[in-house]
Amino acid sequence: MLKKDLRKKYKELRQQLSEEQTEDQSLAIANRLLQLDVWDNTYFHLFLTIEEQKEVDTEFILQILAGKDKEIVVAKSNFDTLEMTHYLLTDNTKFQKNEYNIYEPVDGIEVPTSKIDVVFVPLLAYDTKGNRVGYGKGFYDNFLSKCKEDVIKVGLSFFEPEESIEDVSTTDIRLDYCVTPMTLYSFR
């Protein structure tokens, strides 16, 4: 399928999920993440859930990271440049919702992409090769292209993979893993 068709399909599938299903499946994803061999790393980049889009609720992952004393990095998006600035999450971090209903840090301690070890990547769909479909702005491909070569890219999805995405671009960055409520996929 083409990316635009996959976006439509998975936005509709997400909207069919009840609040209880979203919460239960998000918890299952967080628990399955514990099976990944990533916990020796220090800097973890975590996206903050857009509730209106029924994304995976990352609050459970946030709790795991805090419990393991990890450095948690969150982003602020610039929709003019399609780039993100990354900030260390601290007790003093203040958030506000942007025009796209994304919670973002107002300011804080900036973290260079070279420090980030693991990135939890939002997505709408992905395929059996680790290609992903996001919302189409290219924020994460742009960000991941600037990370160190061995950064670990972990997608989070309520759904199983598509066989293939037909219109993969040379600028698309593949995932290393994708975690669903039922399965942990490795694309390495």
Automatic annotation (TrEMBL):
InterPro entries: FTHF_cligase (IPR002698), FTHF_cligase-like_sf (IPR024185), NagB/RpiA_transferase-like (IPR037171). Its EC number is 6.3.3.2. GO terms for biological process: folic acid-containing compound biosynthetic process; tetrahydrofolate interconversion. Its cofactor is Mg(2+). ATP binds at residues 3-7, 132-140. Keywords: ATP-binding, Ligase, Magnesium, Metal-binding, Nucleotide-binding. Gene3D superfamilies: NagB/RpiA/CoA transferase-like (3.40.50.10420). It comes from the Bacteria. It catalyses: (6S)-5-formyl-5,6,7,8-tetrahydrofolate + ATP = (6R)-5,10-methenyltetrahydrofolate + ADP + phosphate. GO terms for molecular function: 5-formyltetrahydrofolate cyclo-ligase activity; ATP binding; metal ion binding. The keyword Lipid biosynthesis does not apply. Substrate binds at residues 50, 55. Belongs to the 5-formyltetrahydrofolate cyclo-ligase family. This is 5-formyltetrahydrofolate cyclo-ligase.
